[in-house]
Structures are given as structure tokens and as C-alpha cells.
Amino acid sequence: MSSNSITSTAREHVFPLFVKYVSANVLGMIGYSCYILADTFFVARGIGSDAIAALNLVLPAFSLLNGTGLMIGMGAAARYSLSSGRADSEIHRTIFTQALQLAFVAMLFFFSIGLFFARPLCVLLGADGTTLPHAIPYIRILLMFSPLFLCNNLLNCFVRNDGEPRLSMTAMLVGSLTNIVLDYIFIYPMQLGMTGAALATATAPLVGMSILSMHFWKKKNQFHLVKTRIHLKTAIDICRLGVSSLVAELSSGIVILVFNMLTLKFSGTTGLAAYSILANIALVLVAIFTGIGQGIQPIVSSHPGKNGAPVRNQVRRYALSTALLMAFIAYLVVFVFAVPIADLFNKDKDPLLTSMAAEGMRIYFVSLFFSGINMVSATYLSASDQPVPGFIISILRGLVLILPIAFLLAALFGMTGIWLCLPVTEAIVCVVTFFFLRKF
Q1: 131: which residues sit within 8 A by CB, 6+ positions away?
Q2: Three-class secondary structure assignment of 346-394
Q3: Which of 10, 204, 226, 326 could form a disulfide with 175 if both were Cys (CB 3.0 to 4.6 A apart)?
Q4: pLDDT tens for each residue of 296-336
């Protein structure tokens, strides 16, 4: 089903189309986020607390890598759908190739950092003598395998926009399952430690791309590689439309970086280990909202202008309602099962670690009710060709507000203030979000 058929179908059957795209993308993103969660579980159980602390320290670098892939993929796919009414136009014909060229530039950057600057990067992120031996091999391998992550993100976005959300979902889920299986094999029987965990994570996108390549063998495939050179104007346009996705991912990395420093200051390595459990669980829960946003993007982008406003508004209502429902279910599960969830990642059965992590979950994840609205709305606005308000929402929650609020609440309330930081920030941003939704 091409983006043109998305348009014609959505006018008559918005809700079935919404369910088709959103369900596939939510499941796919949950599977994709399990890359790191699987690492956390096996690293925690198979290597120990120093390794899990190291894993958490390098997560911001992975967020930047993943966010860059999403920015290029989501931005280019949005422009692809927005131009679908003129399928013979130059931009519609060449956007995939130009996005791939832009991704290649990003690949060179990340690959070079991983090859030459892995140790300085780990030190910059806060690794010390106990965590450096675990952090360096992990981040070096991830960054040197950046071509796989970036190409996988790009293909996922285009295949989804080209009418194949289920194929995109399948690729992400099978890739995640591969990661989990390889994590077990590399960490336990083969005893490869953090190197094994990184190799398992880096191999999964290759599996995903193998599945996505099936789309190219179908006659209904609408995007192809063509002979063209990258245009600066197009590259800027891709980044402009996708920047909210980058900022959303970066916000997770920035929050992790700041919280790493604060938890070390107030509670030492036990606090850092407790926060690392929350941070990795948050990757999966936030992936739900990312999936909703990615699911509505092809539908919203295929209905530009005043004529498409009724469909866009209807999709927005469905998306926000779904985000709130998923937030309620997720928070209920976390609240009730906080202690057993914390115990899963507590190899040494440290009661202080379990207590601290369980208490943190019940406060920290109140943020889900607000972050769901903020994340879905930012993607919706960008998909509607309104990237500026989408960017403002993302930058407020990811940088402008989160940093001063984190330091203020930590100074006033210690670890409780750290857990409160994200709910307070997301609630304030939610007010701004509703202002933009009313305006646009």
C-alpha cells in the first residue's frame, strides 16, 4: 500500500488505519528498545553491578546514534509522504537516496569516534577506573557498527511509509529476539562479557535489514535508489522535519547523563545502579509513545493542508487517547510490581538497591502520563509540516527545563527530588503542548 493509498483509505476508515499503523509500530518499537533492556538484564545477571553502571553511563552515546538515525529516517519519510501528491516530483523521486547519502555522512562521524575516541568519550560520560574496562569495548563496538543502526532506522521509516507497517514491525521484533538470544550465548556460554553484549546488540539491525529488504522485491515498492547528489537544502529540510525525533532521543540521553551525576553524588554506586534499572525500563515504556508517534506520521503527512485537517484532528484524538491509556496500564504494572521488577536486575540481592529502585519507579514513572502527550504531539506537529512547535516541545523537555529542575529538586529533596524531576518537567511542558495543539 503506497502513501497515496494511505490517503484514500484514511478518508473512509481512519480508525482501522490508525490501529493498523500504530499497533505495528508500538510492538516494533518495544521490540527495538529491548536491544538495550536485554543487555541490561544479562549484564546485570551475568557480569555484575559495575558492568550495569558502565552500560548506563554509555547510554547517552547510543541515544545520540539512535536519534540521528530517527531524525534522518523520520524527516525524509515525512517529506516523502508530504510530497506523495506529486509522485513524479524530483523531491519525491530522490528523497530516499539523498537521505541515505546524509546517513552515510553520519556513519563516518560515529565510526571515527568509536575507532579513535572510545576511551575519551567514556571518560567524558563519567566512567572511572571500575567502569572503564566495561564501558570502552561496549561503546567502541556500537559506534563502529553505526552503519547498521542508521541504515536500519532509515529503511524502517521508509518501509512503514510505503504501506508496510507490519513488515517494519516484524523486522524490529525479530531483530530484538536475535539480540536476546545472542546476549545469552555471548555472555554465558562464550563468556565474552561486555564485548559479547555489544556484539549481540550490533548484530540485531543486520537481521532487521535482511527482513526489510523483502520490500524491494515487491512490485508495489515506491522508493528506489536513483542517481543524484545530496542537496544542502534537502538535507536541511530532512533534519528540520526529523529534529524532534532526534531531540526526543537526546532528551533520554541528557536525562541519563545528568541523573548519573546526581545519583552518584547523593547515593554512590548503589544509587547509580538503581537509576540504571529505571533508565532501561524507561527506554521500553517510552518506546510505546515513540511507536504511536511513528505510527501516525504516515497518515498525518499524507493529509496536508486544510482538506486534510479533519483526518489529522481525528488521528490526533486517537493518538492522545491511546497514549494516556498505555501510560495508565504501564504505570499500574510498575506500581504493583516495582519490587519484583527491581529484583530481576539485582544479582547480589542487595536490599538497599531493590528498595531504592522500587521507590524510584513509583515516583519517576508518574511522568508517563505527561511524556506520552508531549512525545506524540511533537511527532504529530512535525508530521503536519509544523516542525518548529514540535522542536520547542522536544527541546523544553529534553534540555531547557530538565536541567535546572533536576539540580534544584536534587538540592532540596535529595534522591526523592531526583525521582520527582522528570514528572515535574513533563507536566510543565504539557501545558505548552496543549497551547500548540489548540493553535495548530
Answers
A1: 50, 51, 53, 54, 57, 122
A2: CCCCCHHHHHHHHHHHHHHHHHHHHHHHHHHHHHHHHHCCCHHHHHHHH
A3: 204
A4: 988 888 887 788 888 889 999 999 999 999 999 999 999 99
What confidence tens digit (pLDDT) does each residue in 197-235 have? 889 888 888 998 999 988 888 766 777 777 888 788 888
91 CB burial (10 A radius; 0-12, 13-18, 19+) = middle
Maximum Cα–Cα distance for the chain, whole Å? 63
The Cα 16–Cα 185 span in angstroms is 40
Name, in order, each residue with C-beta under 8 angstroms of 229's C-beta and a sequence gap of 6 or more: 101
Do residues 50 and 123 make contact, with C-beta atoms less than 8 angstroms apart?
no
Q: What count of Cα atoms within 13 Å lies in the side-chain half-sphere of residue 219?
A: 0
Inter-helix orientation angle 146-161/90-116, to 10° = 160
Amino acid type, 368: L
**Contact between residue 134 and residue 47 where contact means Cβ atoms under 8 Å apart:** yes
In the block, residue with C-alpha cell 545469552: 184
In whole angstroms, give the CA distance from residue 309 to residue 300: 9
E strand residue ranges, 167-218? none
CB of 149 closer than 8 Å to CB of 69: yes
Give the chain's mean pLDDT: 86
Q: What's the first-to-final CA gap in the chain, in angstroms?
A: 29
DSSP 243: H
Are residues 159 and 25 in contact, defined by beta-carbon separation less than 8 angstroms? no
Grid cell, residue 22, equals: 500504530
Separation between Cα atoms, residue 41 and residue 426, nearest integer Å: 28
Compute the distance between CA of residue 334 and CA of residue 365 in angstroms, rounded to an integer.
8
Torsion of CA 184, 189, 193, 194, to 10 degrees: -30
Please give the Cα distance from 74 to 158 (Å, whole number). Answer: 8
Helix, strand or coil, per DSSP, at residue 164: coil
For residue 271, the SS3 value is: helix
